[in-house]
Amino acid sequence: MSKDDIDDAIDRSLIEIGTLIGAKRAYLLFTNEDRTVEFYSQVSCLDKKEMEKFDYVNLNVDDFPYILKEYEKNGFVYIKNTLDLPQEEAHTKLHLQNLRIESLLLFPIKIQEKLLGFIGFDDLEGSIDWRTDDFTLLKTSSEIIGNALERKWGEETLKNTNQLLTAILCSLTECILLIDKSFNIIWVNNETENLFGSQFLDKKCFEFLFQLSKPCKRCIAKKTFSDGKIHENEYYLNNNQQSNLKYWCTTNVASVNKEDSIELVIIILRVINSVSK
């Protein structure tokens, strides 16, 4: 499931759950490090497509002390009618009334046991006698949504990490290649393309670097695939700019599969000096 599919699924789930329990609106909100509130999604649970959305830019978690206390005590928040809040909770009551929220249900969204926000359901026109039978459904739904978001954000983090790693490798002045167990070149950095050419796809490392028809006799990449260790050796190579250059070559494991079998090996070539014949 793609990241957009996850967002669509969350919105559909909020609508379906909100409709089932009789809410007029549903939303997914997060609390930021500065205690401000950020709404990830707002959906209408009514038949009409358009829904009045509120500006929550200035909302802060500390504006709702009663909600915080209720969550700490019960693990969720249930307000049947804001008019019934006790007098000492006037601060929370005022802010909810300013938002025109008459009745409210909030269930926590947690990722790795850390509270990040809530899924919420409310009514803007009157109180609703929320059925306690629905609370189990809402608790389970909040856990499912939290798991979906964790997967989505994990994929985004991995993608961003991979992009950063690629940018770093591309900027290095050493020649870097990734090869599979059949010695096929999977990827090279910019320096490798500059010195050895861009026609590396469908080529094996010994063809691309050494113009050979079979693996090198002293192939250290083969050793790394075999034992998973770092190996080093000297090689003489010709590139597009100079011939007979001495390179210090290092190989190491770059990727393993679920069975802990080595899938990719990284090759790093560093010029030692040029040798004239």
Describe this structure in words.
- The protein has 7 helices and 10 strands.
- Strands 2-1-5-4-3 form a 5-stranded antiparallel β-sheet. Strands 7-6-10-9-8 form a 5-stranded antiparallel β-sheet.
- The longest helix is centred in the middle third of the chain and has 39 residues, at 133-171.
- A hairpin with a 2-residue loop joins strand 4 and strand 5.
- It folds into 2 domains: 3-163, 2-Layer Sandwich (Beta-Lactamase); 172-274, Beta-Lactamase, CATH 3.30.450.20.
- The protein is α+β, with helices and mostly antiparallel strands and 277 residues long.
- The chain starts with a helix and ends with a strand.
- Helix 1 (3-21) runs antiparallel to helix 4.
List the main descriptive attributes of the protein structure presented here.
277 residues, alpha+beta, Beta-Lactamase, 2 domains, five-stranded antiparallel β-sheet, rod-shaped
Strand order of the largest sheet: 2-1-5-4-3
Beta strands, count? 10
Give the topology string: H per helix, E per strand: HEEHEHEEHEEHHHEEE
Q: What fold name stands as the CATH topology of the largest domain?
A: Beta-Lactamase
Query: Whole-Å distance between the termini?
Result: 59 Å
Strand content: 25-35%
Q: Give helix % range.
A: 25-40%
Structurally, the number of domains stands at 2
The first-level CATH class of the largest domain is given as: Alpha Beta
What structural class should be given to the helix and strand makeup?
alpha+beta
Could you say what the CATH architecture of the largest domain is? Answer: 2-Layer Sandwich
Based on the structure, what is the oligomeric state of the protein chains? single chain
